[in-house]
Amino acid sequence: MEMPKYMTLVTWIKKKIESGELKYGEKVYSENELSAMFHISRQTVRQAINILAQDKYLESRQGSGTYVVFNTTVKREPTKTIGVVTTYVRAYIFPQIIRGIEDVLTKNGYSMQLAFTHNKIQNESRVLRSMLEKGMDGMIIEPTQSGLPNPNFKIYEEIQRQRIPVIFINSGYPGMKIPHVSLNDRAAGLLATEYLIRAGHKRIAGIFKSDDHQGHLRYAGYLDALLKAGYEIHDENVFWYSTQDVPDFSKFEQIILRRIEGCTGLLCYNDEVGMRIVEIMKRNGIAIPEDLSLISIDNSDLAALCEVPLTSVAHPMNVLGETAAQNLLRLIQDHTFKATVDFEPKIVERKSVRVLE
């Protein structure tokens, strides 16, 4: 005897959910989509969805859609502990971000287990596996080398399978459906480059980080601004570096000097790079901002303490940490909460940019 059409759909959706292909909290296809996929009427689709709702596989929400409510994992006992993973801890913008996270978690009765990866994928693997074993109510994670394919994808799949809420900070892995709380990095690159353009600079170089997704986004914003202004793109004026290059940045001195040749403006990936560029320029008799105007991103303490105080795009730091923690706690209570936030950039003016006559 042939299976009724609605039961064919019921069986198909149950298999998708039980295999983990459709995950807890995910929105399923609309009635119109299922009708077209299975060549059945919307009434038949509704009949199948009603059965799945009765069996506690799906839940229909008025004005929103139909969601998976069947959990394939064993319910975990709350630990009141949040795992926090950053690339670095004690320097640059990280203490302020971590402080913001900790303040919110402490006020809400949660403790924080902190770990860092030094932006190395093997460290990320070790840290995430350790946190999975110990059990966390949620995780706040700064991705490691987010500009490259991630070999730890299976670990993230396991975190999601166990229904542990996660929020990425500062970036995210393209292709992973995990919310993030970040500076709008593309807008930051755009704003910084437009600032130089408004100051009269037409040939603008850029230094960007290749193995972090923020570098790609800031570069995209840099391109957006140049194209919007009608300026030609010069590949020879762009320098890319990676995490491994940072400790000995001076080895690229001659390459960087060639990259900025003919340019009056320079956008640096962050303040740490900006400070190193100021040192390189000083050694080579290039005055900032008289000979080269420089703008960076993050507005860290380094920007203010640099020998030439840097004009910089502000990173939200403490507020970013607070927001990530607040949104994670919301996710723990409501898995459908839209937790992604992109902070719009603002420029803090100092003395590293000259207005051309």
Strand order of the largest sheet: 4-3-5-6-7-13
Helix content: 40-55%
CATH architecture of the largest domain: 3-Layer(aba) Sandwich
Q: What is the CATH first-level class name of the largest domain?
A: Alpha Beta
First-residue to last-residue Cα separation: 86 Å
Whole-angstrom Rg: 25 Å
Can you write the helix and strand succession as a string? HHHEEEHEHEHEEHEHEHEHEHEHEE
Tally of domains: 3
**Derived structural class:** alpha/beta
Q: What can you see in these coordinates?
A:
- The chain contains twelve helices and 14 strands.
- With 357 residues, the protein is an alpha/beta fold.
- The chain folds into three domains: 5-68, Arc Repressor Mutant, subunit A (Orthogonal Bundle), CATH 1.10.10; 81-183 and 317-343, Response regulator (Rossmann fold); 185-315, Rossmann fold.
- α4 links the parallel β3 (81-86) and β4 (111-116).
- α1 packs across α3.
- The longest helix has 16 residues, at 213-228.
Write the layout of secondary structure elements.
Layout: H1 5-18, H2 31-38, H3 42-54, E1 58-61, E2 65-68, E3 81-86, H4 94-107, E4 111-116, H5 121-134, E5 138-141, H6 153-161, E6 166-169, E7 180-183, H7 185-198, E8 204-209, H8 213-228, E9 238-241, H9 253-259, E10 265-268, H10 271-283, E11 293-298, H11 301-305, E12 311-314, H12 318-333, E13 341-343, E14 347-348
Parallel strand pairs: 3-4, 3-5, 5-6, 6-7, 7-13, 8-9, 8-10, 10-11, 11-12
Antiparallel strand pairs: 1-2, 12-14
Helix pairs in contact: 1-3, 2-3, 4-12, 7-8
Summarize this structure briefly.
This protein is α/β, with parallel strands linked by helices. The chain has twelve helices and 14 strands. A six-stranded parallel β-sheet has the order 4-3-5-6-7-13, with helices on both faces.
